[in-house]
Amino acid sequence: MYKRIAALFLALCLAAGTPAFAQEPPEDSRPQGLAAISFAGGEHTYFRSHTYTPAADAAFAANTLLHGRTRLTEERVLAFQPGENLLPVVTGPSTIFGRGLNLQEAVNRAKSQGYDVIGGINAGYFNVTYMTPIGLRIRDGVLTSLNFWTQPAVGFFADGSVIFGEPNLTIRVTSGDGTVAVDQLNRVRSPDNIFLYTPDFGTHTQITQNGLQVVLQVEGDLAPGRTLTGTVTRVIEGNASHVFAAGEMVLAASTQSEIDRLAFLQEGDAVTLTVSCSDARWNDAAFVMGGMSNLVQDGQNRAASDNTRAPRTAAGVTADGTVVLYTADGRQSGYSEGLTLGELAGRMIELGCVRAFELDGGGSTTMFARLPGETEAQLVNRPSGGSMRRCADFILLCNTAPLSDGSAARLFPKPAYAVMMPGAVMDFSLLAADEHYRAVPAPLRGVAAAPDDSAVGVTDGLRFRALQAGRTEIVFQAEGGGPAGTARVTVTEVLDTLTLISADTGRVLTELAVPAGKSARLKAEGTWNRMSAALSPDLFEWTLEGDIGTLTPEGVFTASLVPNRSGRITVTGGGRTVSLPVTVEDAYENGIVIEIEPPVPDGETGELVYRLTVRDENGAPCPEITVRWNGAVLTGLEWAGGVTAEARVPMPESGLHILSVGAADVLGRRAQASDTPFFGRRDAEDSIADTVRPDGTDEWYTGYVDFLDDRGLLDTERIDGLRAYSPLRSVTRLEVMRMLTRILELDTASDPASPLPFIDIGHLGEEDLAVVRAVTEAGLVSGKPSEAGPLLDADGTMTRAELFYILYATLPPGHARSRLTGFTDTADIPAFSLRAVQTLAGMEVVSGAGGRINPLAPITRAETAALMCRFYY
After folding, report:
1. Mean pLDDT, the chain, whole residue set
2. At what angle do helices 766-777 and 733-743 cross, to 10 degrees?
3. What are the φ/ψ torsions at residue 841 (nearest 5 degrees)?
4. What is the mean pLDDT of residues 557-584?
5. Region of residue 586 (phi > 0: left; psi between -120 and 50: alpha; otherwise: beta)
6. Quick check: 869 and 708 in contact, CB under 8 A?
């Protein structure tokens, strides 16, 4: 069966002649390179292609596609041949409403259920506010989500086999007096539809508007081809959400025409619920995942017209039954621009797919794969939002092969692909797997390594020294004819890119500012074919321009004692030259030191004791120091030598608590630091219900939300007697204004007759208008320009950059600014908020995610709560 899955990639190589890194693949490995092929809408080439084996009958490829001369797309392909040793599963959170998981959390959950996960992708589209799936979903044979419209889907059976097509499921509820068709299963109720809810939705139906709910006591679970019997136990009018009891389902409608369709159902009626399918083959599927739209049908491109290049996720099947799970990164200039839907369909056809459909793309696009010899599946793409987004569903691929005796059947050198310059040295490590590609201990002794071309480099144990440009394969072989593995090495004298980084922080440098008399260690890094290259320092020349200090051949720069001078460091090697502007700064810049030692409980007094140190860089006291505990200023602190003190606070019982220290020195420079210990979920009868996981454990934002809620600073709503905050929903501009008004205690008693400049506030009530007037008079909001006049856009979402700017506007001057050299998306920061972002990053209030600030992304209510706590308390 291996040969069938290998053919998927090998066919691509043979279709266009000799592949890059062309080698005859060993019997127990995958083809190691893909060639240039015709791309829909233009010619593209494989700029880079690496393939790996996560399990028998499965292959993973990481490809860089080059379109024309400049446009790049990073794609990841996880392909497998269905069979008894591989099981695809559809997974997600335990209940649907308001939860969601990211792919790492989904993998962890599946592992806790006993699955051996080797890879996976995000799956169907979902409502981003409520995290509810939009389309079809079956998990463990139970139908948990359905929409009335026809959609393509993939089904997975317990024996590992797969089906693609349109199941066309329908749900009908019948009593002696009539029949009604269900339009939506387990989605938030809206007008003009009949909804059916099951306990898979959550603890209750989440009804908040007037309408009708018909409660059914039903025996069994919904599944294709199944008819269930039940009884109408209650008919509820109004807007109260119904809490599920065991075995209950609920029909619901909110508009009169749909309420009338349910009128024939009366308390005590016997009913049947029938799930029908247009193709009986789907009835036995253990897992089914619906997609958004067809991309490929009968081998033809059927994609909808779309000129937008974006991150994409898709699933497809080839003529021989190989399943292809696909992602393409996008919206990341210089790394991967993404694909249009037409290009996505064309790419699936190139991979051999005769049927394919679109899954949720954009910021949701995520793929995991377990590389050979590794114990865990890992993130293998780069999500466009900078981190893994929470989604409603995932498709995971699991290894179900029987356990072996744990002996090594094959070796996998790490790295499997390497780039080096002549003179560079690389130490390889070895991983091992059993006959079913599960990780086992690698042999530690008796392993010999030899390159097939000794002119390119030589080995000494597991160490390889590059000698001259060329390509070679290093075969690692255990003694006595034991398992073997191959690493592929390219030695190049020419680099594609050369970059200077800080050897202390690892951050890429575009400029360098060093205090007078101080030193900075620099390091050159290079890439070839988008791969990091092992470099030899002897091949690089370092030069210094300007009377700004000294520079060693190893890249250590020491600034002169005279500040306010500028110059340049230049490094040449590998056919590349890079220059770095250098500024010698005043040695006293950013010189305030604030240290908060971890708190220690005092058993005698029942207090929590903090030891604080606040000084400038010369050890001198700061004339202005403010210490707050949960926002209240602590007075009476005795500062030994003016720089150290003990802060004693009552021992907290529960919840998040914040100790913050702010200081200013004699030069007017400011700094602040904080400690936020969390003493567990608060014990409150009226706590916020949707800030904890279904198992009662805390989310990362639980403490922040509770902290602000305890002080009456949040907007919440009541659902079925429980308060909810909707932490994953994007915050609106008006919600931020309300929060700031309360935190800053702005005056809302201004003359209500005083005019406001905004032309879109006619729908706001008096209380909200008072809030808008207060933040406007405080200079925090100016609106968005339009031809008709300024727009407030009160109900619109707020971006991260906009909130950073508002927070910065309330800050006294004197805080240091970060140069943001550790972030890759600084070009996306709007000019109006650049100084704000620099300042908040310098204060470490803003740290970004995955090396990105994500300034244009909407900010969630949870993130807003966390920022408010870190900034104001």
Report:
1. 87
2. 70
3. -70, -40
4. 91
5. beta
6. yes
